[in-house]
C-alpha cells in the first residue's frame, strides 16, 4: 500500500468516527514507516501527523506529544523545510494547549517567526499569556487587534486594563476607531442575544458604513432581518456578503434555513455544495445539505447528515434547530421538542422560540407551549410572529377563541405577511364554521404570501366550501411550487375523485364530501377543543402580550 493510499484510508476511518480502528491501522502501518530512513522526510512527516491525529482523536494527547517530539529530535529535522517545522510547532502547541500547559504552549508558538504568525497563532499566544499573567499579554492582544480589528476578546482584555495598577495602556491602542468598531460589534451581538433585532440591525448598518465590504457584518445584519421576517432584505444581504467573501461560513447555516423556508431546493443544494467545497470540517455545509434533503422529502437522509454536523460541532445551535424541523416533518414532535430545546440552550433566537412552541402544540402540551410563547411575546412585543405564537396556543382553548382572534388580527396589523397568523386565524374560522370568512382572509393575504403551504391551505378551505374546481387549481399551484407537498397531492387526488366519480361510486362519494376533509382542516373543524389550563387567565395573558398595543395606532376598540 502506498503512503498516500494509507493516509487516505486512515482519514476515512477518522471521518467515520472510527477512531479506534484508525489508530490500530496507524500503529500497524504508519509507525513502522516513520523509522524507515529510505522514506523521504516530507512523506514521513505526513505519516507522523496522521498518526498524531489518530491519537488526538482519542484524546491521547500525551502519547501524541511524545511521538512528535521523538520524531523531531532525530536527524530528519535537518531535512524538513522551515514551513514544515512551523507546522510541527503548531501541532505541539495544540497538544500543550489541550494539556493545559499554557506556558509551554506559548513558548512553542514563539518559535514561529513573527512575520509568519497567523491570527490563530496570535490569538492562542495572547490567551496563554493572559492565563499565565505574562507581562507581554497586552502587546500580543494589541498585535492581534491590528490583524483583526473586530477581535472582541482582544478588545475586552485591553479595555479591562483601564483603572488597573498600570493605568490605561494607551500604547497598545493601534487605532481608536478599531476599538469603537469592536465595541459596536459587541453591542450588536448582545442585542441579538436579547432578541432586540431591530436595534442590532441598525448597529450593524452603522458598523458596515465604517467597514465597507465586511462580509461578516453584512451576514449578521442579514440574520437580524431574517429574524424580523424581512426575508427579501435578508436574502439580498446574505448574497452581498457571499459576493464580498466567497469563503464566508459565518451565518451560512441560518441562510440555508431561509432558503429552505422558500422551498428553493436548488439554491439550498448549491449553497451546501459550495460550503462543503470550502471546508468539510465545518457544520454549516452539512446543515445546508440536510435541509436540501428535507426540502426534497428525504427525511432519513436529512437526519443522517444533520447528525454529522452535530458530531463536527456539538455546540452549533443551528444543527439542532435543523434537526427539529426534520423531526417535525417526520411526525416526531416529541423528538423535535428535545432538539429545539437543545438549540435554544445553545443560542436562543426568535426561531428557536417558534420551533419550541410549534412542537409543544403538535404534542398537545399547550401549557408548556404557552410559557415559551408568552416569554417570546414579552421579549418581542412588537413582533408579529411573537404575537401570533401566543394566538396559536390560545386558539386551542375554546374559552380563549376571542383572545386568540384579537392577537392574530394584531399580528396581521403589524405584518400582513405573517403566515403563522394567517394560518391560525383561518383555522379558527374553520373551527367555528365561518368558511366564507376563512376564504376571504386567505384571498386577501395570498398575493403577499405565495407559497405551496398557503395555496394548499386555501385549497383545503375551498374544498370545505365545495368549490372543487377552484380547489383543484390551487392544489396544482401548490404542487408547481413544491412537487413534494404530500398534503397537496392528497388534496388534489381527493378533489379529482369528487369531481370525476365513477358510475358505481358517484352517489357514495357525493355523500362523503364532508367526511373527506383535509386532515388538518378536519381536526380544526371539530367543535370545542376543550378548555386548556395554561396556568394564567386569558385576561392576564392579554395584559402581558398586548400591553404594547394600548397606546399604538391599533384601535382600542379592537381590544
| Total beta-strand segments | 0
Q: Main β-sheet, in a few words?
A: none
What is the approximate shape? elongated
Enumerate how many helices there are, as a single number.
31
Strand percentage lies at under 5%
Average pLDDT, to the nearest integer? 82
Structural class: mainly alpha
**Helical fraction:** over 70%
CATH class of the largest domain: Mainly Alpha
CATH architecture of the largest domain: Alpha Horseshoe
In the residues, how many domains can be counted? 4
Might you state the CATH topology name of the largest domain? Serine Threonine Protein Phosphatase 5, Tetratricopeptide repeat
Give the gist of this structure:
The protein has 559 residues and is mainly α. The chain has 31 helices and no strands. The model is unreliable at 162-176 and 509-559 (pLDDT under 50).
